[in-house]
Design a protein that fits this description.
homotetramer; 11% strand; 11 helices; alpha/beta
Chain lengths: 295, 295, 295, 295
């Protein structure tokens, strides 16, 4: 498949939902088209920003179909697979692949803590159930497990485990992963504090919720880095930083959805128990988007 | 309904599963009958020990049906409702009530952190969707949220929110809950370190995974406390403590399932990514069960 | 020495200081006399409440002298030894013993994390430097180390390590210590959430900052427990609990010092960087002390 | 004073001590001379690596005297001031300044947690007690407090608070500090995972324990960054990273002291309760120093 090498800016797509939790298909298709026209290098539906841990399979399945169809092969689609049990994750991964995605991003919400052996077995099972490239995802803040460097090393025995997206912002751990596995595992940046650092030590791209609302600015930072214009990239990262500060104070999906509504995409509120931004939060996000030139 | 006042020992039932994750219905029915004959005061399927966060709705629905039928009204059945989204939890709660349970225990696995307002709205929605008594459950170790005393106070505005099971083992927080809401909210003990303390400050019972394998010993401790034989209860709690130490070192479902297999109930392994106890763990659990007189 | 068996209520004495950080010796002597007349079973200067981590050796030395003299053998004095380095702790312990105390309580503020081997070596060195009984103290919230059960087991090889005061409020850990080492190590309760629990599983007493302001009520709880009047003890603990809630919201030394000022002991403010209670905090503490009958 | 602008590589000097904890003055003087000849841009005695939290004032005073004398004005000396109480810190700061240092680095080991108001008051008092430039230091892993961006903003009202060394490795927080206060507060890098990132977003230098054993390599990385040879700097940071991994596994002072012994500086063991590296740790450190070209 031509779309099997992923690099650049991959917005974490929000999942547009109405008040009853039903997918707003046309809004999603419009957003996909808009982002591709803005120049993004790929799309990642059903990540954290896409509220995957809160959606049932029917909604997730339909989300993938809409994104794949609207994308029409213009950029790669890397869809999230999110399930607490190994059996569920394997089943979802296989069905997701059949829907025509170019790759899979794995999330594992958790309950009981897991050791390395359990973590490795889980993701190995997923990898063996599909043929497409897999991007491992981890966000230790929201889980009771995390990848150790040793677990990642064992997981690279699976040939289609090709990418990692580490949301820790823990640059020490990232240094250890890059110096140990950097030849084998391609790394995507997450939090807006680290893309610059990631690109400098060899990262291939940035999967990002905020990129839904600032696609052009995200691409600008990526391109500056790719052309080794590092001081310029540093200035761009600093300029975008206030948006991330606001997004951390409020909630990620709520912020990205509020920003998209301001930009004319009626993506609706986040799924409860999450709540939509209140008036103060909307003002804060609006002010920052204006200052960045995204409104 | 006669079974609406809950007190005493409520084993957290394991969910017997075969290697493919299919419910072993007869084993479950046998276990239910066995525990009732041993004298337990109620049954709680689909709690943490029941691996609720790892099961799909079909398996959960069938588990409730089997437990309700095998119980045949002899003791109250308080079934777990476990869903990350509010809509999903409301739907599960309503369907669970229709299956004939006497009460509901609410678990909320989580991803994004939640504030008090979000937490209160979630559980209020569940409470308003059913008529039966609700036991709020929280286990801060495995979640990105927890009940504050203030949130609990607001939740007691819902008349059917009647019980709380706090798994924190945080006796300071429990003191604050009891001194503030003790007249309104009945409290069940969780971890084996605290039943004695809980009973002494007014707790009504003990919902417990280990009670599946040591029902008689758990009842003995409860009865000693209920008859104000506190020194005797203290000695019993100390005697049972090593079992809990082992259960913490290994994993809860794996330990309870291993112990039940030793007692002749072929409940199978826990759901992956959890793993069955290894040989060393089985020896440890076996030794302790023998010393307690449970084998 | 007749005073080598410690049991009952040991107030953690505040260290009365003027605005310049100088010891108010007469106030300290008066407080000592007052507490002994109220019936406390021992005195513990230079614990956490005594701000030991903030005081220089001269102030600490003089504090011990004043307390020993004012006590005049009426109750045992167990003085805190608080030093980050082993050499410093050993030197302080030896000098403290020479000042005529009946026992030593060991605090170890910390910087770099310590493993079991380092922890054991530190406290072993102190134990071997003195002949008097030692009470090990640990407060994991404020340290980068903690006692494991295994480390405690090794430390009981030192014959004069006889007592433990665990400030964790972690009842699971306390259960493990009591069931493993309960015959060898006598345990004092700390936080006001656990004395009842501690007495029931065999604790010998309660070392407590709040006991400076509620000595009579603390003794009442201890005596109810000692006479196996457990329900009465439970009611007393619940009644006193709001004081602890206030003390946690504000800062411990600031609260105890404010309460003592209200009772007529001009003990002064806590050492900076700690701050005295503000007006709102004083009102809260005053209201609770009144409701408990301590004002 | 000509030495009031600090930039570049400042090794965190170890404090050479014999088995009895006495300063090895000649070894310290030799190390100072060696590092200056290797090209370091400044020296920082009595930081964490210098074991400041474990030393008494006499040893600290003498350490400063030896370093100031051996340096003889060739590079700036920024000495650590480390005290838990405000009064103690103020007194130490004033005396340290009199000993002829060019600047002060503030450490605050802690016990009770501190809020912003308390933190600000503490460091403001120190700043007002001296005329020399102050470098604020914070290492949240070892403390019960940390600087918020708001607290830092208020502290920049003191004109001589000019530098910050943040040991968190939390790049998100560093982004917030730089974008908010970057014009006012000059920032030094700490942990070896972040110098590259720090230099790129405007950091002025690197205060580093490992720089005692790899001064040349640290300078090389700094110079590559200063000349905007970012890809080269990235490769150098990756090459040095394994040293940091080893230093985290064992203990910092123990590792730096072991490395210096291998390089011919008999700096002795760290102060107990810290322990010297065991044979395995020494082998690990030796192997890495060889691979980096530092042995």
């Amino acid at each position: 498949m031509g779309n099997s090498e992923f690099r650049g800016i991959f917005p974490y797509l929000v999942t547009p939902l109405d008040e009853k939790g039903r997918l707003k298909e046309q809004v999603l298709a419009d957003l996909v088209d808009h982002l591709i026209r803005k120049g993004v290098h790929g799309l990642t539906p059903l990540g954290s920003t896409g509220e995957a841990p809160y959606l049932d399979w029917e909604t997730k399945r339909r989300t993938i179909e809409v994104v794949v169809k609207a994308t029409a092969g213009r950029v790669p689609v890397v869809a999230g697979v999110c399930n607490t049990s190994t059996q569920g994750a394997v089943r979802e991964a296989a069905e997701t692949e059949k829907l025509g995605v170019d790759g899979i991003l794995t999330l594992m919400p958790s309950y009981f803590p897991l050791n390395d052996q359990q973590v490795v077995a889980h993701f190995r099972s997923i990898a063996q159930a599909v043929a497409c490239p897999i991007t491992l995802y981890t966000n230790a803040k929201f889980q009771t497990w995390d990848f150790t460097v040793e677990a990642l090393k064992r997981l690279t025995e699976e040939p289609n485990i090709m990418y990692l997206k580490d949301a820790s912002g823990n640059v020490g751990k990232i240094m250890s992963i890059v110096t140990t596995l950097g030849q084998r595992l391609k790394i995507f940046s997450d939090t807006s504090s680290v893309p610059l650092f990631m690109f400098l030590i060899g990262g291939v791209g940035w999967m990002s919720g905020p990129a839904c609302v600032i696609p052009v600015q995200s691409i600008e930072l990526y391109e500056a880095a790719r052309r080794n214009r590092w001081e310029e990239a540093a200035e761009l990262q600093k300029k975008q930083w206030p948006l991330n500060v606001a997004f951390q104070r409020y909630s990620l999906s709520a912020c990205v959805k509020a920003g998209l509504e301001m930009q004319g995409f009626p993506v609706g509120p986040p799924m409860p128990p999450q709540k939509a931004l209140d008036a103060e939060g909307r003002r804060a996000v609006e002010g920052i988007l204006r200052s960045i030139g995204a409104l």
